[in-house]
Amino acid sequence: MKKTKKCIAMLLAGGQGSRLGALTRDRAKPAVSFGGKYRIIDFALSNCAHSGVDTVGVLMQYQLHELNFYLGTGQAWDLDRMHGGVYVLSPYHRGGGGKWYTGTANAIYQNIGFIEGYDPENVLVISGDHIYKMDYREMLGVHCEKEADATIAVMRVPMSEAGRFGLMRCDEDNVVVDFEEKPAEPKSDLASMGVYVFNWRVLKEYLIRDASDPASSSDFGKDVIPAMIRSGARTLAYPFEGYWRDVGTVRSLWQASMDLISSPPAFDLYDPVWRIYSKNPNLPPHYVGEGARVSCSLVPEGCTIYGEVERSVLSFGVYVGRGAVVRESVVMPFARIGDGARVERAIVAEHAVVGGGCHIGVPGQKPEKDAGGITLVASDVAVPDGDVYERGSVIDGHTGREETE
Amino acid sequence: MSAQMFSIVYTGQQAPELKDLARSRAVTALPLAGRYRAIDFMLSNLVNSGITNVGIVTQHNYHSLMDHVGSGKEWDLSRKQDGLFVLPPFVTNQNPGMYRGTLDALGGVMSYIRRSSQEYVLIIDDTAVYNTAFRKMMEYHLEQKADITVLYQQERPHEAALSEGVTRVYLYTSEEGRVWDIEVNAASPKTRLVALGAYILSKTLLVRIIEECVARDRHDFIRDVLIRRMNDLRIFAFGHKGVAVRIDTVQNYYAANMMFLDADARTDLLTKGGPVYTKVKDEVPARYGENGRVVHSLIADGCVIEGNVENSVLFRGVRVAKGALVKDSIVMQNGDVREGASINHAILDKNVVVQRDRILSGTGDFPVIIRKHGIV
After folding, report:
1. What is the pTM of this model?
2. For residues B198 and B186, is the Cβ–Cβ distance under 8 A?
């Protein structure tokens, strides 16, 4: 007999995340390092694990090896289950030819077969690039109790930024009456967090209908949800209070990292009942040497620090040489900061090497356009000794890792 | 590895000289170097040597050990074929439940030995901590056509002083490496080769030895096999080239942890034969406050550092409050050193609280030990 599920999750791990530029050159956005020992996708997966959602389909079609290796059996998130677990779902070829996912809704549409295998009552659709802690059970409870067809998690955002989000207006019972994706002129400050619960039978109908409409871009925010509202499907807003950040840009990734080290932290990783799970790199405790100075920072296992680290988030395996200064920066796994180098307001990506005496992120005249005032050293780049880069530079395309080793 | 090998790790060692540290845990379950337990090193050595069939023979206080190793998953030893077997003592007509020595213990797990399909066996009956892959030792064993190969370490001269309650086995070897004399706890040994308690032999020979010894009520592997059979068995010694530390007295345990502060020793002990695996706790990165000051120390994940730490090893989840000082000390998991408190040359076991402005002070030879859950 086929087992059924109350709710399974479909995680949109998406496309390239081109706004992260060089950070997503060789990996999908959800696989980007965050918070010292995590990757962005850990937050959504940990939310699933803590919310009792034990089946997660991860939809992706860009650079999936890195993320696929990372997910493995799903054991790190307690998602290696007899009936359920975590599955990477990429586009595949079928009888009449296959095609890429053309939009978020299309990605789910192409995996109707997977979802039907679990015969779920509801489907939770989440995104792999948000930093937040949320108990999906509460949202699911409201969704079921109010007999909604779709429930959208929402939060208030500053009016000035509202245009970046899907915005909605609701009546007094939180029923959504109007939904607009990234409007030029926002009429509301109630933003979608990209977390949806759908009644599966209803969603399936809309997905099938959407797929037969050649004019549709097959996007949840632009097409499917407005269509549901138009045709009278019961669509609810579920207000969420708490920390939630989209880390889709270099600037927002940096800012969210800084939120971890404010006092008290804007986002608390230390919550003992809501641990963020991640795959463990198996490294020794970090070592802080003579002459080092570390303050207001996160430092995970495997780091070796001889220099100065201030208001920064280091990832595992990072080396900071003697006399080096790392300030207000994010240093990703296994990056090396050479002796005497200065790194300020920068993101140094995985395995990058900043040569001795370099100065990365010199406050200067350069327009802060590319990375929003944050200097970015791309992964595997080796910056030659003594190089100086102005704040806001993007440093990419030096030698690859093969040559530096 | 050309020859197939399984391993039996004996964890029943008693170490009265560890005092409170081993009161409620097996010696091999002692926390080490900020995030490990002693047995992690040995289990990692085994898997890094390609050994996937491991029996852990337990005797005393093995609760924390079993809790730690679990299914063996963290060492990739949770397998369809073979894997990790925890072998606690059980009472039979022949076996009163207490092993009187390694051989007695091996006799107690005879069914596991018979069931193992590998031709050779690596027996570990010492708590020494080192990082090696046993492949070279196995190759040496085959090259020498040895019956038994014993792993040893060159003892440094100042280490020779023997304290009460510990066992040291001294080996005398010929030029080709054959063992011609063995002394246990010699008062003034004339050799610097000290056995590390790891032996390779064929399973057939092991079974024969156990049967013969059980029949004669002999149970000490060193005295009743190595020493007694030195002439009729080809016993060879193979040297471990790297660092090996002992954890069988408080002083040794303290020194072993401090050894990890040395960059070269740390690299040797944590990477030489391969990575050291341990149970994963999903701790958060360590967080440094505004006034944290750390010098020459190892800090594990989950620590919150707002005070001063010097020359110390901090395990997971330790808090050092503002104005507190932790110097030349070992603080195990979830230790809490509160504002203004000061400790030096101390070993705080798990979950110890040092209250505000308290001062604890030991010496290098006699560090202060605070028991698990102690509140000072």
Report:
1. 0.90
2. no
